[in-house]
Amino acid sequence: MAKFFCDFRFLLLIAAGAFIYIQMRLFATQSEYSDRLAVAVESENHCTNQLRLLIDQISMQQERIVSLEDERNRREQECGQLKALVQDLERKGVQRLIDKVQAPVAAVVVMACNRADYLERTIKSILKYQTSVASKYPLFVSQDGPDPNVKRKALSYDQVSYMQHLDYERVETERPGELIAYYKIARHYKWALDELFYKHNFSRVIILEDDMEIAPDFFSYFEAAADLLDKDRSIMAVSSWNDNGQKQFVHDPYALYRSDFFPGLGWMLARNTWDELSPKLTENHKGRQFIRPEVCRTYNFGEHGSSMGQFFKQYLEPIKLNDVLVDWKSRDLSYLMEENYVKYFADIVKKAKPLHGRDLVLKASNIGGDVRVKYEDQRDFERIASEFGWSTKNSLQRSSCFPLPKIKTNIPCWSKFPRTTRDRRFLTQFKNS
């Protein structure tokens, strides 16, 4: 019995020893696995961080890819437009218009954007008088932007050569609150004039907008004026517009004047002048002047546009469009040359009946000829002009004005009033009685 208990305790000791050994092995194994698990967790965290960095990099690359795809699409669109333009020019045989036998008087370009209905009205008005002199005045439409209706309308006329300006650059205005549209128009003007003067090699360009109708003698007027522009470098441009050309103020379709202010709204520029203006789009007229008619050779019907129709009813709608077919080539325009005009205009002012005091409009209506009114300063000038209803607003800047925003100038887009050339103490009203 005692031997049995002795053997049993021995077995218990062996079992206890085995148990303790197993527990120690289990603890060691558990510690080892815990260390491995900690290392695994740390590795997983590191992998997670690396994955996040990769995801961020992939995201940035995807944005870059999208940007590159957009750029590629724009490039493809531009290439497509250029290809279409080349095909259109080849189809219409522009080179035949610019032959060596007779150089054109001027290219005529209609500046358009997104008003297809206006453009159609303008083109029809031009073709009414341009068809018979097409070789002298090749007709272009320059579209700013991708409006499909405008492009379709321009390409529907075989007599028209089409150009398209695609501008994706961001516009930064010089002053807060300025209309971005005017800056984009300025870019379009520069691009179109560069194309016509330097790519197509025209010596002169007549600029119109897509909301204009022209007079029957429009082309005759500019052909005669081209001679003046070539001979007299003191003339900066020739305009078909008179800011104060409302029906109640004009009557003589043969009268032309030199102006210190740029009227715009249908005007012709020579290449040598554009050579000076194009590089930096900065401009000072340097004492040069502009030729304009008393009765407008263009009519602006664009109530809706970049200028948002401001002053349209008051100043633009009542404009008289000339309806007399004047043969300008047969007329002697030498009086408009700089050396002759000072005396010519001074004689007109000298012969005009002077008006003084109050009720100037009433007094002028009782005089059967030209009148002149002396004013003391700018305020006095504006007061007198307002009595007669003449435009004195510098704010009447339109998209057709040149120069446009970012083109420094001291030439108001709308002339304030017909003044004498050298003596600004007088202003003259040419009456229709």
Automatic annotation (TrEMBL):
InterPro entries found in the cross-reference section: Glyco_trans_13 (IPR004139), Glycosyltransferase_13 (IPR052261), Nucleotide-diphossugar_trans (IPR029044)
Coiled-coil residue spans: 51-92
Keyword Transmembrane appears in the UniProt entry: yes
Entries under Pfam families matching the protein: GNT-I
EC number(s) given by UniProt: 2.4.1.101
Catalytic reactions on record: N(4)-(alpha-D-Man-(1->3)-[alpha-D-Man-(1->3)-[alpha-D-Man-(1->6)]-alpha-D-Man-(1->6)]-beta-D-Man-(1->4)-beta-D-GlcNAc-(1->4)-beta-D-GlcNAc)-L-asparaginyl-[protein] (N-glucan mannose isomer 5A1,2) + UDP-N-acetyl-alpha-D-glucosamine = N(4)-{beta-D-GlcNAc-(1->2)-alpha-D-Man-(1->3)-[alpha-D-Man-(1->3)-[alpha-D-Man-(1->6)]-alpha-D-Man-(1->6)]-beta-D-Man-(1->4)-beta-D-GlcNAc-(1->4)-beta-D-GlcNAc}-L-asparaginyl-[protein] + UDP + H(+)
PANTHER family: ALPHA-1,3-MANNOSYL-GLYCOPROTEIN 2-BETA-N-ACETYLGLUCOSAMINYLTRANSFERASE, PROTEIN O-LINKED-MANNOSE BETA-1,2-N-ACETYLGLUCOSAMINYLTRANSFERASE 1/ALPHA-1,3-MANNOSYL-GLYCOPROTEIN 2-BETA-N-ACETYLGLUCOSAMINYLTRANSFERASE
Name of protein: Alpha-1,3-mannosyl-glycoprotein 2-beta-N-acetylglucosaminyltransferase
Organism: Cannabis sativa (Hemp)
Lineage, opening ranks: Eukaryota, Viridiplantae, Streptophyta, Embryophyta, Tracheophyta
